[in-house]
Queue: 2 jobs
Job 1
Amino acid sequence: MSLINVKDIRKVYRVDEEKIVALGRINLRIEQGEICCILGTSGSGKSTLLNIMAGLEKPTKGSVFIAGKNVTQFTEKQWALFRQRNIGFVFQSYNLMPTQTAIENVAMPLMFKGINKRTRTKEAVHMLKAVGLGSRMMHRPTQMSGGQQQRVGIARAFVAKPKIVFADEPTGNLDSKTSRGVMEIMVRMAKIHHETLIIVTHDVNIAKYADRIINLHDGSIISDEPNQSIVSLDEEKKEPASAAVNE
Amino acid sequence: MKWKDMIGMSLSNLFKRKVRTLLTVAGVIIGTCAIVVMVSFGIGINESMNTMMEGMGDLTIVQINNYNQTPESTPLDDDMIAKIEAIPHVVAVTPVYTLDWNAVTINSGKYAYQGQIYGVNMKSLADFGYTVQEGSLPGDDFEENMILFGWSALYNFYNTKKTSNNMIFAQPDATGTIPDPYVDPMKDELELVINEMQGNLDEGTSTTTASKKQKPIELKCIGVMGDDWSRNPPPGYAVFMDVSFAKKLQEQYNKINDVDTTNTKSSYDNVSVKAESVEYVAEVEEAIQALGFADTYSMESIRKPLEQQMSTIQMILGGLGAISLLVAALGITNTMIMSIYERTREIGVMKVLGCVVGNIRTMFLVEAGTIGFMGGILGLAFSYGISFAINSFAAAGNSISLGGIVGVGVTGSNVSIIPVWLAFGALVFATMIGLISGFYPANRAVKISALTAIKQE
């Protein structure tokens, strides 16, 4: 059984009298541990697909099954509890809490889960070290560069050991060099725990990191194939702190 | 999510916007102050009104008047008194039995007293608020021949050896001192004799002399009472003795003088009933009236309308305060809505990260409630300060003419009183106001879509 099963998803937006078809009958299966890239230009419907899979939007038709559960029928509360346990999220604009330190930001999903402060701080420290921010744990987002902020974002997405991590244009606000670093960290973290990573991007260079590339155009999948020119993670660049992730 | 974490996040959110939080709290402080100080004025006025009324007479005493006794009416006798004593919340009952004028004479050597003598329930005098300025009130060792003298009554002793200039008056002499009366009842021996009437009363030839048929009775005065016109019977100009003793003396007088008693009442004219406290007076009075005595009187008839007037004043004062707290409530709502606008994205992100909506609502309510609570605490502190300042100012002899506003003389007691219930109530009320004000913003926060986290500015 696939981890994610997208069945006959259709999404139509209504703008005044006009109907805009964002997604037309999408069928998709994603397996546990896959690093999957949804590639498409602006307006291709890639963000809508991600939003529907993550439960941020409801489809007009069709259903999404995650681990056998029909999540399209979830109530808001069910979604919240489901996200606590199964889903991590990396945002384009990082979305860190501006008034909180890196540790507090990373620990936040654990706090929502009701984990006590001592345990979640320990976990957060562990994650921050894993993303190479061991020296900036008490810094606030405003005291960090974009790349550093996004690494905090990644640590936050993976801290609760979710089954799936969604990344929405994770490098959209970063330069190409920083982007590479961020992508490598993200992919490595997903691989370590055999977690499913779904990256939405318009950037072909980012897509190279994925095992599988799904090409979306005008709300339809035009190609879905394994990545031929996969970028292998450079073993020499592996940061010493990342060893801690291996437990 | 743990309560501790929700409260922690709420507080840190408040702390991060210090100025705005302080201004909003200031609104609640002013509102709480307004209510507490206004209501404390109301209570102060009420209290001074009660003090004033206590000066007019004991608030907890019900008088039963029974002057218009007919053979058909219910007798107000000892059996009835026992019934009245059995009414719930009755502390003490005393009949007021007036010994016939001239029935007896109290002698002390050559001096004689022929004045007012009341028969009362001597042991209940303390309950009725009587005090002595010398000696003591009857205690457990009370004996029948023990009496209390009114201070002014002592000046009614006259010198029997003289026909003129035979009295001392309780008026200051040339040196400004009030002369002592002839008799010091606490030291001098007192003797009571039953009088016998000779001659014809109608012809104006009657004289009274001590009867030889009855031996003089030795009296023991155990105390001297001062003047106090707020009590019935007033103690100053009379002698108090036990009612059973007084009735016995009256019987002996009747027997000696062949007074026909077949038609005389066995009822008391007047009975005083002491209720447990002010709040039971109305209840006790009703119960007495139900026993068949319509003519009752208590301070309740004055106190009640006054109290109603006072509560109207209190409501007006409290209402004035409530308006400012209402404005403060709007301030809280406004602040919370502003804060939601600022934090829309933050709330969206929290939802995406798995925060349950109920927790978001709770956090906003805690924030609003905290504003109310802090405002309440500080407002209360300020209120105590203001109250203290006003009271000291008033005590220093400055006339704060609250009495002028409400038509009641305010003297002697505090102008502003903050009882515990008011302090506690104000705190709860301020917190409630905070929570209620936060309710709408909290629900708005809950409705923010998780999608806002994704959207790019």
Job 2
Amino acid sequence: MTPDPSATIFERSREGRRAFVPPAPDVPEVPIDELLPASARRGRPAELPEVSEPEIVRHYNTLSKMNFDLDTGFYPLGSCTMKHNPKLHERLAALPGHARLHPLQDPAYAQGALELMWLLERALSEIAGLPHVSLQPSAGSHGELAGLLLTRAYHEDRGEERTKVLTPDTAHGTNPATVTMAGYEVVKVGTAADGGVDLDDLREKAGEDVACLMLTNPNTLGLFDSNIEEIARVVHGAGATLYYDGANLNAVMGIARPGDMGFDIVHFNLHKTFTQPHGGGGPGAGPIAVSDRIEPFLPVPRVVRRAGEDGPEPRFDLEHDAPKTIGRLRGFHGNFGVFVRSFAYIRSLGGDGLKEASESAVLNANYLRARLAEFDEYLPIAFDRTCMHEFVLSGRGAKGKLGIKTLDIAKRMLDHQVHPPTVYFPLLVDEALMIEPTETEPKERLDDFVEIVGSILDEAKEDPDIVRNAPYTTPVRRLDEAAAAKRPVVRWRPGADNPGDPERAAGSGASDGAGGSGVTPTA
Amino acid sequence: MLDAIGVGSLEDLFAEIPEGVRLGRELDLPEGRAEQEVYEELASLAARNGHCDDEVSFLGAGMYDHYVPALVDSILQRSEYLTPYTPYQPEVSQGGLQVMFEFQTAISELTGLPISNASVYEGPSAVAAAGYLAKLETGRTKLVASRGVHPHSRAALRTHAAGYRMAVEEVPLTAEGATDVAALASEIDDDTAAVFLQQPNFLGTVEELGELAEAAGGKGALVVCAADPLPLGVLKPPGEQGVDICVGEGQTLGNRLDFGGPSFGFFAAQERFIRKLPGRIAGETRDVDGKRGFVLTLQTREQHIRREKATHNICTSQALNALAGVIYLSWLGKRGLVEIAELMLRRTHYARQALGLEAINPGPVVREFAVRAPDLDALFERARAEQINPGYRLGSDYPEYEDGLLIAITERRTRADIDRLATVAAAAREGVAA
């Protein structure tokens, strides 16, 4: 009999089983209570599972088969840039010189790692069009926080106190969350009829109390804001900084650079644009590039290249002293393993290849947009313009005419072995579907997707319940998220009552607010 | 494809980008290369790094050379874990969600706290995240950190606190390298939102957590403890000693050194903070057919729902590294965790005696300890000649321990390794005396 795949590793535990064999003891077996006072000792062992290696392998292999992944199928999750992750990168990251290098190794013995970081910084600087880079932030949202802390340090250094940060109403959720964490107040800027920033609204709000405008360009509607030069003038005129959320950089590499658009601070999502595998939700990395006026405040340590003292060979080092720095954002030097993969990517593609990647990403998105226009009656495009690397459809037609919601369409896609787009984001589009095919999909996959969308709409015309009750073929079907939130069970306990038992499930009607799976990613 | 779009050329797709912001030239980067050429370039860079297979390393100070079983590498390379993103569609993400649930269970067991999230970035920024929770919870303005907390954690806390507008005060260590209880008590007042401790502390000292937490109590400040999960195999869980929030660096659980990352951070807490935790949390539920399943839960805490009112801005975290953690803990198992911690404890004790250097922290230690060495430069020079890395020099972080050396003893450092270090230390001492 096949064991229940939903049984946790803890439930597979049987007393006395084990995988680990400890190394042979080679020092005197001093009684533990002579080494550690009773007051400091654990009373009972932590209840970790007792399992053998074959059981562990089977358990995690079985679980893995309940995941949909990019290596298996189309994953057009808008704003997440699910592009292919080359296998070479895993081999390179695993080299002992990378994987087994201690972060506090004397820089004299870590020259290869520091040079790689320096080379990656230079490459990102060129791509961003901004002269200075720190690789330290751990992910996009951490880069955003770094950006606002830099902004604060910059203004304080000038003796200015500013309290507000502007974010467009189309912004990723991380932007306003970051603003609050950085001690500022969020002020929303509206969206104009063409999908760009409402310039009049911006002019009105960009006052002396504004520290920064956080912008994504192309924005979350997949549209390039062609007023960017004027936006930069308004923001700089107010004495504020202009921050570039790099989530959508995949559209413009080698074509237009944030620094040339007037941005002061940029974060990169190495896990998006520079193809670090997403890992089921990380790791990522969120390096930042900045202009000269922001540079003195960058986090420490900084990677520096010193001209050779005893010869022509340059030496690389970590510089900890910078009088105006905002300090450290995290331990050590950042997610180095991610840097290795992204540097390998940049080296593989080269300058021309990066540009071609962006061109292909935009071509693929526009092709898919044009093909899906066939279903305009049900899934109208939110802003009918040439898009960049992604675009947003509205499910309002399908909802009104067929009685199926965007969430239903997304769930039905799961039965067709594709991952749905990002849904219900951006917020200003009713029943939004945000589609980002990326450059690594061939035309056939895009055509397949069009067919899938068509077949879902067709079957809804016959019987909308088919779509409303989807999915059918997945390891589990729609899950009761309201019950999960009402009485949270967030760890396994021996003999605990079953959260999904029928009586309990029947009693739960309250919702935890906006739907869980009907939501958006970013950063 | 261009015909289907209705444009004549690729350039037409970029027509909305104003001329003034176009690059108008090629990126100034080397041309693309073949896979084997990229491999060779990066492999030659990697070969210039002195890694832990090249030398006998006693470096620790926050990341440690523990053995990572082959099992972890094998499972982490499965595409089904490596290449999906955050489980927004739970019906096709049960593997990742169940891993999160198992991870939360394991962290809860280790820390002795009832709830855990599914990971944060890494250790020091997890400490800063606890500071932000303390601000949201108490509305107070001051944070108090022991100097036994990792210097990177205190630095990250200061950096982040500058944003959420809180001051960070530090409490000194005693002459024995433990947090000064009296100084801690006197630093805490009605403005204090949280107190930060570390177990074992940066010098390796096993802190009297219960006593410190008690001293911190009474004024309404939260007690936050950063902990290394592996020594918790033998140490009393922070959750049983008055600690409200336990965070930490997870590298020691099945993650590579990777020159400092990626690893994972963890964030565990008392039940009452469940709606204020940062990051993803997996919860158990049922599907429409009554089948057991897992979902991301309590998402109204998070940035994608709550936006400016979110409890933290974190989105992408460290899911794959947390998976390594839970596989590693399953591999060690209930008894293995105790065995490995006891092995480190005994070898560390042996090393401290064998080295015969003056102890900075003579009290209980598990995996790491600090000593004074009369001439560190001489010691390092001799050790390097023997392919030994003696440890971490404390002087740059702790001027009071200018001649201090922090030595880490993982299960990979054998008695023979320790004896070699002791020989080098003795020779260096004699060299100085002569």
